[in-house]
Amino acid sequence: MAHSPEFIARMKEQLIAEQQRLEQELSDIGSKDPSLKNHYEAEYPESGGNSDDDNAMEVTEYSDELSLKGRLEKELQDTISAIKSIENGKYGACKYCGKDIQEKRLEARPASSSCIACKKALTQEV
């Protein structure tokens, strides 16, 4: 059973809001890379000190921001893909088995592209 137009419209609103939130968070930790679409560069923090402790703190903070940036970029890409799938009329279908993704799963994670059974199989949680 395909998802209702009302459900899809509600999910699209949530996805657009999520896209804006993710883009804002990415802007907060870095700047947009003009040469790559939806890619951001984390900015290296400068504490102003030159001690070993200051340098270690800067490297740690930068490493944390790189990790966060990578996770946020992946979430942004998933969100954009979900919005495109709505526009293409394919939203809510598992990309692996083609069956409808449960609405509860989509409500919990609107950018989901796989059903629970396929996700478990992929992550070997069966």
What is the radius of gyration?
19 Å
N→C terminal distance = 25 Å
- Main sheet makeup: 2 strands, antiparallel
- Percentage of residues assigned to helices: 55-70%
Return residue spans where pLDDT drops below 50 for at least 5 consecutive residues: none
Percent of residues in β-strands: under 5%
Classification by helices and strands: mainly alpha
Number of helices, where a helix is a run of at least 4 consecutive DSSP H or I residues: 4
Mean pLDDT figure: 86
Q: What sort of overall outline do the alpha carbons produce when their principal axes are compared?
A: elongated
Give the spatial strand order of the biggest sheet: 1-2
The total count of strands amounts to: 2
Q: How are helices and strands ordered from N to C?
A: HEEHHH
Oligomeric organization of the protein chains: single chain
Concise summary:
The protein has 126 residues and is mostly helical.
Characterization of the model:
By secondary structure, this protein is mainly α. Helices cover 59% and strands 5% of the residues. It contains 4 helices and 2 strands. The protein has a two-stranded antiparallel ribbon with strand order 1-2. A hairpin with a 7-residue loop joins strand 1 and strand 2 (40-42). It is elongated, with a radius of gyration of 19 Å. The mean pLDDT is 86.
Protein topology:
Blueprint: H1 5-29, E1 30-32, E2 40-42, H2 52-87, H3 103-108, H4 116-122
